[in-house]
Amino acid sequence: MNGPARYIGCEHNIVEKNPDTVAIRFALCYPDVYEVGTSHVGSQILYHIINKRNDTYCERFFHPWVDAAELLRGSDMLLASLETRTPLREFHIAGFTLQHELNYPSVLSMLELGGVRLRAAERQADEPLIIAGGPCAVNPEPMAPFFDAFAIGDGEEVIHEILNLLVQHDPPFDTATGKAELLSELDSIEGIYVPSLWPVAKSGGYVVTTWRADGKQAVRRRVVEDLDAAEFPSAPIVPYRESIHDRAQLEISRGCTRGCRFCQAGMIYRPTRERSVETLRAQANEIIAATGYDEISLTSLSCTDYTHIDELMQLLHEDLGDQRVAIGLPSIRVDAFDVKLAERAQRVKKTGLTFAPEAGSQAMRERINKNVTEEDLTGAATAALHAGWHRLKLYFMIGLPEETDEDVLAIAETVTRLVELGRECLGHKSGKLQFNLSVALFIPKPHTPFQWVAQDTAEDFERKRALLQDHLRSCKQFRLRCHDPQQAVVEAFLSRADRTAADVIEATYRAGAILDPWTEHFDFGRWERAAAEQGIDLEERASAAISLDAELPWGHIDVGVSRQFLLEELEKSRGGISTPDCRLTACHHCGVQEVVSECPAGACK
Amino acid sequence: MSNVTHYYAIVKYSKSGLLRYLGHLDIARAFDRAVRRAGIGVKYSEGFSPRARITFAPPLPVGAEGTQELCAIELVEPESAEQLFGALSPQLAGFTPAEVRVKRGTKRSPFAELQVACYDVIPDFADDLKPEQLHRAVVELMARQEIVIERSTKRRTTMIDVRPYIYELHAAGNIVSMCLGMKQETLVKPDEVLTELANILGTVSAGWRRLTRTGLYAEIPPQEA
């Protein structure tokens, strides 16, 4: 068996409880393998929060690797928790995190391996309540038939409201009435979407939710306004098996208002909320003492935008440097790059530095609102090279709206210039120079200004990638890694899909799809055929623009950012007009200022 | 060669139960973090990416158990074994440390003197194999003057006589107990012994169902009559 250490549990900081002493048993499910899921900070937060309650025991589930999944399928054993080996179907409630659209078939696989019926409508009263959260839940429709409810937005507060309700209802239910009552009460919690209570109808090309008898029109995203007071796990589980982010993670802030127009996270986690330096310092020390990690990574959507980043880095270095704990800044804005900051981060061990200019041409950077300049980039690179970094990682994206071949070639030119710069800076040591070029493919995402635009076809992507590679052929000191175009097409289809896509997802799963984010398990043909059976041309859907006045399948999910703002941003993108960060300038009335009591954009109301 | 004195905390621990599924690197990471949590003054290597100097007896395969496994943590300065045990035990709970002793040495490798590894093995032979058959095969194998086996590397294949390095071999019920050489020149693997036994029994060895390393020793046991 491949990697049996995935299935043993018993890690340091695991929570042990007697299941007989709790009212509610909660299954926390991550629809990918252990080494991916165990690194997810959101899941660690929920595990910690739920297990602090005396009335609930939260246990973990991950999707097994293909060999173990096959073994389970062929046996009478069920997918069971790492904590107490209890099968999924014996839990009262199971919560899935939806981090990536390509994991949707794995959700179905986990349900089935756990002995739970796939469709909410078919599940019996005594089966667990199946809910979901995470970024993909901002368009819950393609997965709506499989879940009893979705929690939209931050989970720290709403999870208690869900559990309090569940304790009152005292599952398991004998009859469907008990469950129906619970669902209708869940529906009244802010941020909870119960799909079965929303009638749907065809409108234009999409199936969308329609008028509800009680007049409810939207589900508003939950926002934890005081992040500093929000709980954070000070003793996270330390996996035995190496995980994808095998280090301590400290969430310094949530949300980003830089306003990159392709970026879903930059829209759906607004406003920017920061934890205080005092809180973070205490948490960092506690986490290191409780885990023994030798590296702590400051996580946020843009860590150099944290207001007190200098002070925080200095204090963490003072506290943890002697213990040989490295402090990691996962990505650094080139306009905020500061050698001192980077050196402080890497004093214990020098790892790579990552910059994300996203586009090669200034015109494209303006269209996507990535407001950094070529000078910022060369400045940051020069400083880093002089300070002794020989390995730099660069993030670019291709397939952006209205992209021309010139825009793609501009990436090659930028890289070529950086390599020349590197040779000059390093002189006789230039052999050590290495640029790792990571090229992402643009995927139009719901609740972003680009939600209406067309995606490139897989062929377009291939052609542009080849173009890029061709123009970088003469230059040896870089490595190019590009996302899989066919995966990007499926991701685009799923992220903007309506409820009818559920049949495509189930059929793809029936055809054998699991762990699809792993390119070795991904099979485009399986998706294409499943979609065709439902009369859907997958590539055509992904590469079609959506009419600006169409009703959208995710229209009833209110993340706070208004449709009006998204439309204005799309318009500004076409004119190459930028929108500066509201924290640095003034409120742009994105809509979130109406949702929260205090918005960091200042006097915006 | 330097005559620097090194101080080691030698931890005797077990790799058993579900933790038998850990790979060697998993165990090394777990010990590294446990040592950091325990706040032990451990020595670090020099260089670009300094690592804590923690060494292990030769690794066991994934799935195999060990009841008397050894780990050496190089200390910055000598410390009391009792205190080290007190600090480490709660951090290594899954590995149920049995004892910690402090050892000083001048050699670079704290386990250089280990010569013998003993194992209890349940072989994966035919299901209908009787204990008497297994016992007879063990006696027959040990009666041989030489046991020549084939060892192949990528480059070449060599024949070597491993009989001198099979120090003990017994069978009781379906368990085969063996004490084997573990130095580079004396190394015999439990699987190699199982293959020989299977040959005698006219069957094919599918390896082991259960393998437990029961001890690691510096002295070679006296040869039995």
Write the layout of secondary structure elements.
The complex is a heterodimer of chains A (605) and B (225).
Chain A: E1 24-30, H1 34-37, H2 41-52, E2 56-62, H3 66-73, E3 93-97, H4 104-113, E4 129-133, E5 149-151, H5 158-169, H6 176-186, E6 192-193, E7 200-203, E8 206-209, E9 219-220, E10 248-251, E11 253-254, H7 265-268, E12 273-274, H8 277-291, E13 295-299, H9 309-320, E14 326-328, H10 339-345, E15 353-358, H11 362-368, H12 374-386, E16 391-398, H13 405-426, E17 434-441, H14 458-471, E18 478-482, H15 485-495, H16 501-510, H17 524-533, H18 538-542, E19 557-558, H19 563-574
Parallel strand pairs in A: 1-2, 1-3, 3-4, 4-5, 9-19, 10-13, 13-14, 15-16, 16-17, 17-18
Antiparallel strand pairs in A: 5-6, 7-8, 11-12
Helix pairs in contact in A: 4-16, 5-6, 8-9, 12-13, 13-14, 14-15, 16-17
Chain B: E1 6-15, H1 24-38, E2 54-56, E3 65-75, H2 81-88, E4 99-105, E5 116-123, H3 131-143, E6 148-152, E7 157-161, E8 166-172, E9 175-181, H4 190-201, E10 208-217
Parallel strand pairs in B: 3-10
Antiparallel strand pairs in B: 1-3, 1-4, 2-3, 5-9, 5-10, 6-7, 8-9
Helix pairs in contact in B: 3-4
Portion in helices of chain A: 25-40%
Distance between the termini of chain A: 59 Å
Described by its quaternary structure, the protein is: heterodimer
Question: pLDDT under 50 segments of chain B (min length 5)?
Answer: none
Please state the structural category of chain A.
alpha/beta
The number of domains of chain B:
2
Task: Average the pLDDT over all residues of chain A and give the rounded result.
Answer: 93
Q: Any idea what the CATH architecture of the largest domain in chain B is?
A: 2-Layer Sandwich
What is the overall number of helices of chain A?
19
Helix/strand-derived class of chain B?
alpha+beta
Q: Using DSSP, what is the number of strands of chain A?
A: 19
What would CATH call the class of the largest domain in chain B? Alpha Beta
CATH topology of the largest domain in chain A: Rossmann fold
- CATH hierarchy: architecture of the largest domain in chain A: 3-Layer(aba) Sandwich
CATH class of the largest domain in chain A: Alpha Beta
